[in-house]
């Protein structure tokens, strides 16, 4: 398939998990792909797995000032950008009484501040049309215990998707958010808990070993990223 043939894509946090799978699918669909990651070993392993054609950029998602360097590397190597998947993030899970200001700031720096200034830095090199997809979480929608700061940071990304969608549409940039329910998390205590969540939010339950919200998050991202203005609106948009 070549639904992304000739497109240039950046996937933050692209060395593991959904980011890595998305990078693999985008490559199969003909895109030129860049990934970012903080851990040099994990980033190098991902590059070896994906192939030499992948552009691997070492970057700290929490460092707002470093995002200009990512944009400059993409401008130099790709000449521009068609797709941005903001996937880098952390899930620091603990009771409210255990939080301190430093840990709070770290979560918001990685999950909100860094992505915001990355989008800002990339504005001069975005193509028209272009697509931005922000990876949020089901925790932005449900009141799961011990996820107060994590859920708030992902809810901030959802809000950002809505406001940027209105602000950037005149530039031909479409903005969406996805909220996957990844259940390979130590803070999910039991299968019974997962089943209750699945019933409450009408999500297919498939046990602890697989994501419960989407069979293939990467394929959903493929759909959002390959959207064209002549296509019907997708119901997965941030404003749905």
Question: Quick summary of this structure?
Answer:
By secondary structure, the chain is an alpha/beta fold. It has helices at 17-28, 40-50, 67-78, 101-122, 148-168, 191-201, 217-225; strands at 8-11, 32-37, 55-58, 81-86, 126-135, 173-178.
Explain what this protein looks like in three dimensions.
The chain has 240 residues and is an alpha/beta fold. The protein has one domain (8-186, 215-225): Rossmann fold. The protein is built from seven helices and six strands. The chain has helices at residues 17-28, 40-50, 67-78, 101-122, 148-168, 191-201, 217-225, and strands at residues 8-11, 32-37, 55-58, 81-86, 126-135, 173-178. A six-stranded parallel β-sheet has the order 3-2-1-4-5-6, with helices on both faces. Strand 5, helix 5 and strand 6 (173-178) form a beta-alpha-beta unit. Helix 1 (17-28) crosses helix 7, helix 3 runs parallel beside helix 4 (101-122) and helix 4 (101-122) packs parallel to helix 5 (148-168). The longest helix has 22 residues, at 101-122. 39% of the residues are buried. Mean pLDDT is 83; it is low at 183-191, 201-215 and 229-240.
- Strand tally is 6
Give, in spatial order, the strands making up the sheet with the most strands: 3-2-1-4-5-6
CATH architecture title? 3-Layer(aba) Sandwich
Basic shape: globular
CATH top level class name: Alpha Beta
- Radius of gyration (CA) equals 17 Å
Query: What structural class should be given to the helix and strand makeup?
Result: alpha/beta
Enumerate how many helices there are, as a single number. Answer: 7
Distance between the termini: 29 Å
DSSP strand content: 15-25%
- The helix content is 40-55%
How would you characterize the largest beta sheet?
6 strands, parallel
CATH superfamily: NAD(P)-binding Rossmann-like Domain
> Helix-strand pattern, N to C?
EHEHEHEHEHEHH
Number of domains: 1
- The overall pLDDT average reads 83
At the fold tier of CATH, the topology name is: Rossmann fold
């Amino acid at each position: 398939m070549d639904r992304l043939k000739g497109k240039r894509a950046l996937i933050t946090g692209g060395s593991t998990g959904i980011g890595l799978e998305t990078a693999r699918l985008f490559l199969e669909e003909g895109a030129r792909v860049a990934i970012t990651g903080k851990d040099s070993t994990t980033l190098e392993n991902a590059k070896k797995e994906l192939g030499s054609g992948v552009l691997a950029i070492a970057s700290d998602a929490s460092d707002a000032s470093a995002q200009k360097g990512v944009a400059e590397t993409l401008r130099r190597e790709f000449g521009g950008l068609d797709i941005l998947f903001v996937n880098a993030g952390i899930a620091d899970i603990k009771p409210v009484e255990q939080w301190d200001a430093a840990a709070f700031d770290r979560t918001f720096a990685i999950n909100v501040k860094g992505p915001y200034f990355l989008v800002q830095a990339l504005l001069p090199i975005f193509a028209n049309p272009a697509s931005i997809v922000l990876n949020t979480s089901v925790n932005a929608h449900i009141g799961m215990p011990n996820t107060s700061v994590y859920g708030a940071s992902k809810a901030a990304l959802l809000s950002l998707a809505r406001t940027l969608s209105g602000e950037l549409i005149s530039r031909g940039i479409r903005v969406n958010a996805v909220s996957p329910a990844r259940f390979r998390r130590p803070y999910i205590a039991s299968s019974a808990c997962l089943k209750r969540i699945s019933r409450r939010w009408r999500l297919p339950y498939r046990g602890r070993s697989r994501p419960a919200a989407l069979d293939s998050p990467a394929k959903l991202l493929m759909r959002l990223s390959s959207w064209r203005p002549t296509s019907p609106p997708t119901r997965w948009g941030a404003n749905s």
